[in-house]
Hints:
The protein is mainly α. It is built from 15 helices and no strands. The chain has two domains: 3-82, no CATH class; 139-241, no CATH class. It has helices at 3-24, 30-35, 40-43, 45-55, 58-62, 66-70, 79-82, 95-100, 104-111, 114-121, 128-132, 142-152, 163-187, 191-209, 213-241. The chain starts with a helix and ends with a helix. The structure holds heme C (5 copies). One heme C binds at residues 114-115, 118, 124-126, 131, 144-145, 148-149, 151-153, 159-160, 163, 167, 211, 213.
Amino acid sequence: MNPVDLLNRSIMVAAVLLAGIATSVMAEDSCMECHKSETYRIENKKLYEYFQRYQGSVHGLLGVGCADCHGGDPQSTDLSAAHEGVMEKVSYRNIPDTCGSCHETQWESFRDSKHNQVLKNEGGAPNCVTCHGSMDVDVYFTSIVKNTCVLCHNEETGNGPDIPAQAEHILSQINVIKGYRGLVQKYSEDPKVMAKIENSYERVTHYWHGFDLHKVEVETEYLLRMLREEKVKALEKKRQHD
Ligand code: HEC
Ligand code: HEC
Ligand code: HEC
Ligand code: HEC
Ligand code: HEC
């Protein structure tokens, strides 16, 4: 992981941990205590699989609790009291709000998008978990387009049939960007250049989550050009280093 991500992550983790201390003084997290039980492996396979998926996710590893997304009462060991309202916050329409409570940047961009308007009115649009998964959040790339965009954007529906190809191209560019960015972050010593790269990356994230594909495309091209130049310098540094 690169230093900037690591720093961001540590800040987030610290915030999550601090929030956790307030509850852990009163009681263990009952959701976790119950749901991690091995007995479900035999008695309730689905429940066990959900926990396994969560445990391996970034959220599981960094201590984002079940109740952070589901609500409910994490201090109660009573089945019905603990589960009060646990499906409400994770219902399809409420998901962006729930995830957005921690991921403000993405939520702010998503909020003004056409997808969100459709989501609020008719429901036929992707939300955060369509692309990232829920219990097992991850950042998917090409599989996003193959598994989700084409469901709604195709010749038959006539709703933006060119979108999948365009999105796939952009996401492959973002993939390259992520690789170069890691390398440059590791070897570049120029804070001004790094700030420029990070600002541009933020704009990419912003335009992407607002589905302004034209703006993402322009921004990714700009960023790639900048990174390619820096990569050459970074590789030079690496050679001296090795
Ligand atoms: C006493 C053990 C226990 C505790 C405490 C507990 N759970 Fe569960 N949970 C279960 C079991 C068992 C099920 C399977 C459904 C059932 O039998 O009611 C379940 C089901 C669920 C479901 C699926 C509900 C549905 O309607 O499909 C969610 C979501 C869930 N739990 C979240 C939580 C959260 C969040 C907490 C803490 C706030 C929590 N659980 C605390 C044992 C527990
Ligand atoms: C990052 C947010 C997030 C966290 C953390 C999280 N969940 Fe979930 N969970 C969701 C969302 C969103 C859904 C509904 C969409 C889906 O099924 O994929 C869901 C679905 C579920 C379901 C299936 C409910 C059903 O009947 O379809 C269970 C069971 C569950 N969660 C339990 C838990 C438990 C137990 C924890 C903690 C160990 C937990 N979740 C942590 C977001 C989260
Ligand atoms: C209680 C706060 C909280 C909530 C609620 C939450 N997250 Fe997160 N999420 C985090 C933290 C902390 C990280 C790790 C630091 C980071 O990458 O930003 C993270 C990381 C991520 C990542 C990056 C994963 C990776 O592999 O790098 C994605 C994607 C993500 N969350 C999506 C979601 C989605 C989708 C939801 C709602 C279902 C959600 N989050 C709800 C706190 C939260
Ligand atoms: C569940 C259906 C659904 C899925 C899945 C879906 N979309 Fe959409 N999308 C829509 C709808 C509905 C609209 C609004 C169409 C309109 O009214 O112009 C839309 C609009 C758009 C627009 C135009 C936005 C604008 O402001 O004009 C873009 C770009 C877009 N989607 C990209 C994507 C991408 C990329 C994916 C996959 C990652 C995706 N969509 C997945 C339903 C979907
Ligand atoms: C149409 C698919 C799609 C939807 C819907 C979507 N995302 Fe993303 N998300 C992506 C892609 C692709 C990336 C990687 C590129 C980037 O960073 O912008 C990403 C990146 C992220 C990241 C940063 C992960 C990292 O460390 O690189 C977070 C956090 C995140 N999304 C959260 C959310 C939240 C919260 C929502 C709902 C409000 C959401 N996303 C909706 C596709 C989507």
